[in-house]
Amino acid sequence: MEPFFVPSPRGPLFAWRHVPATPRAARACAVVCNPFGEEFVLAHRSLHTLAKQLERSGVRAVRFDWSGSGDSAGEADAISLEAWREDLRLVMDAAEERAPRREAFALVGVRLGAALALERACEDDRVRALVLWDPVLRGSSYRDELERAHRGRSLPGGFARRHGEEVEMLTEIAGFPLPERFREEIEALDLTSARPAIPLLLVQTKEDPLSSRLVEEWRSGGSAVEVCRALDQRVWEEDDARTVVPLKLLKRIVEWIEACS
Amino acid sequence: MIEEAEVFGRGHRLVGLSSRPADGDPRAYPAVLLTNAGLIHRIGPRRLYVALARRLAAEGRLVLRFDLSGIGDSESRRDGLPVVQGVVQDTVEAMDHLTERFGVERFVLIGICSGAKVSFKVASGDERVTGVVLVDPGDFGFEQETSLVAADPSVVQHYARHYVRMIRSKPLTLRRLAGWATGRANYGYAWRMLKAQLSGMGSGRRSIRASRAEILGVLDALAARECRALFVFTDESPSLDFYTMTLERALAAREGAANVAVDVLRGADHDFSSVSSQRQLLDRVVAWELGHGRPARSLNGSD
User: Fold this and answer.
1) With pLDDT > 90 as the criterion, what percentage of chain B qualifies?
2) In 3-state terms, what secondary structure has residue A126?
3) Which residues, other chains included, contact A193 with Cβ-Cβ below 8 Å and sequence gap of 6+?
């Protein structure tokens, strides 16, 4: 496991690369796309463990922090999805430059990170496999979900009324800023018509009728879709009684990526 | 500012990031170490440690935010050390690393919650530490194995308030109430908590006195070697309760108080789950570090 920085217009992006001691003959590099805000913090150790397991199984893995999050450069109140889309492309380019030989990519995205991974997979033919872990497929629903969670926890602040408007706007989620532009980008996000034509593993750790319905459409579009249901293994959700890394679930993801590569 | 990844410690198990100004001698000031808050990795609650590291680096400080063994990106220890000794040793190894790499020999330790306890423990035993910032340090690491209930009326009042706040902090929904009858509640945890409270009755006062004496002893020792301390408490936190119950009056009357500054962040919760409370904390800690602390005073006179 080696740290490195990826140059970006917003400053260096912090990344880890996990290089297997004995790479598999088949070549693949898994890039992990983090969720947003508190979900990222909660999922961190599990995604660290996932990358280590990939490394042990002979698959190269790269983890990185989106600009304005984690250890990467940038302010949390200046984040944007447009910048994050570029971050992912830059990280893939950097991983490719460091690879000993040409490799295909497997993107592993969690929640909002899954949305960005899915977008990338539809437009970048270097991506040959996709793991979507409780993906955000409709931004407006995601915003509502975040807002409900914020209100449900009775957290202080988080809402502001813009001049002349009656409706309060969400400005932060559980202590993470939600800049106006970022919120608008999330609201505009709609991946229900995305058709990835590559092998796809859908990981569901919560009931999600929308992604379940899309599975059939993805299959009819030519994608070999597998569904892995592991309800109540939401590593991205706060629960005092559940701080354990879901090793069995991670093993399943690793085996699927191995098989794809 | 320069940020670099640091891999260090015995077996290169520990990882972190150093932040420092592009110009200037990193030895000009004590280096600042940020210790994990609970299981949250080195970026800290709501990324507070990243913001703090960068602000202090802009003021000329060398800052290391790092992961203790088994947290974030650091590997677990394999030497069988008990957890508390292990995290103390991790922090010592972090200081050793900065000494070896940058030549710094003085350190300020900053921690939130369990990070505060670790910082206090390390400061008590390592003379290289010249300052500590303890944010919601709970019982300062002197774990109460016995119940505080029935020992002292003020303790009962404090804990009653604490539990009422806990109950109020989550909406009392039908689903939550029903959980106790449907088998979904964590009965084992509830039983352990109740047992701990009941089993400790009668020994609470003795326990509090022992903790108070030990903490004051450490503070006296820190004062004797001119180690500064800032205690920061969030509003209505159990840490503030513990402080007012056990330390406030005793500390004010002692020599050790001279190097201790105390602040309560009104409106802030323990998780710093609002951006405004994060700004409050950052401003206070940076001001203390730049101004070398302030004289101790009563909580009533705090900001």
Assistant:
1) 54
2) coil
3) none
User: CB neighbours (10 Å) of residue B57?
Assistant: 21
Point out the residue among A71, A158, A174 whose CB comes nearest to the CB of B50.
A71
Contact: B47, A76; criterion CB under 8 Å = yes
Pick from A103-117, A213-227, B115-129: least confident: A213-227
Contacts of A157 in chain B (CB under 8 A): 274-276
SS3 A38: helix
Q: Choosing among B43, B67, B114, B175, which should be mutated to test the A contact, i.e. which has the most A CBs within 10 A?
A: B43
What confidence tens digit (pLDDT) does each residue in A170-186 have?
A: 788 889 999 999 999 99
End-to-end CA distance of chain B: 31
- Chain-centroid distance, C-alpha B185: 30
* Start-end of H helices in B103-131: 114-125
For every residue of A47-78, which 3-state class applies, written as one string? HHHHHHHHHHCCCEEEEECCCCCCCCCCCHHH
User: A175 and B273: CB-CB below 8 Å?
Assistant: yes
For chain B, the C-alpha Rg in angstroms (whole number) is 20
Q: Which CATH class is domain B2-144+217-301?
A: alpha beta
Q: Return left, alpha or beta for A203; rule: phi > 0 is left, psi -120 to 50 is alpha, else beta.
A: beta
Band (A26; pLDDT cuts 50, 70, 90): low
Helix (H, G, I), strand (E, B) or coil at B259: helix
Domains of chain A: 2-138+190-260 (3.40.50.1820)
Q: Per the structure block, which two tokens stand in for B265? A: 């962040």
The predicted-structure confidence for B144-198, as pLDDT tens digits, reads as follows 543 344 445 555 555 566 667 666 666 666 666 676 666 666 777 777 767 666 6
Amino acid at A162: R
Lowest-pLDDT range of A118-122, A257-261, B61-65: A257-261
- Estimate to the nearest angstrom the gap between the alpha carbon of B157 and the chain centroid: 24
ipTM above 0.90, yes or no: yes
Work out the pLDDT band at B297, boundaries 50, 70, 90: very low
Provide the CA B228 distance to its chain's centre, in angstroms: 15
Option in B43, B47, B275 nearest A157 (CB): B275
In chain B, where are the structural domains located? 2-144+217-301, 153-199
Taking the C-alpha atoms of residue B237 and residue B276, their distance in angstroms, rounded to an integer, is 17
